[in-house]
Amino acid sequence: MIGAHALGASVMVYDGAMDYPAPPDRLWSLVEGNGVSILGLSPTVARSLMASGQGRRFSGVRVFGSTGEPWDTRSWMYLFRNLGGSEVPICNISGGTDIIGCFLASTPAIPMKPGAFTWGLAWGHRCTMRTGTRCTGG
What we know:
The protein is α/β, with parallel strands linked by helices.
């Protein structure tokens, strides 16, 4: 939120169930009714929408953001295909959100893979195996 405000963006925060007590399309009403263009949500939300049969694309959303919970391939693909029309990138961040940074992230500048990360923003890091040998790509 600090970064968004520093760049002059508006931030909408919603706390509560996305489908109770209102109808199941409450999330779409909030997003589309308020002109949300970057939507942060968790894999749990994607799984809940998938289970409820909600599959309508979010109009106006340019990027999905996610942090704090690992993605499974089925939920990631549901979000990407059904709610993003296979066009909206999912930017996933892990680690360091409490210090306004991230150790691992994804970017729409390179091909995406379900649940995968690329590199963090402005962080130097290295992946090593338990044996101490450096990890290789793949």
